[in-house]
Amino acid sequence: VTTEAAIPEMRARGGGALLYTASTSGISGSQFSPVYSAVKHGVVGLVRGLAKRYAKENIRVNAVCPGLIVGTPLREALDAASEGAGLPRAAERAKSIPIGRAGTPEDVAKVVAFLASDEAAYVTGAAYDVTGALWMT
Prior knowledge:
6 helices
């Protein structure tokens, strides 16, 4: 519904950028939540289809695919669930990230700001991996 409302406004302005939040689960899948993976794969597919549909109208469509991001209510809830299921918490999982740390909301926000800017004028249909090299697309 939001996309449908935004398209006429973007057309009137001569273009724009639509940004969606997917997940690494939308690229690689997740053994812990196959249904979540299916939904996030759907988001990536939607982004790519919309990018092709609206490229000639200068409307860019991209997604960010965050990995392990700390400092959010969702991460706290996932950590609590992980602990209850005997799975490692974020701090333990962060040790396996090649860049050496978990991501922050600011790390994701910087990618979003880039994709929304004119600096990304030739970027559309992309699913940006924001994982510190844990997953690479």
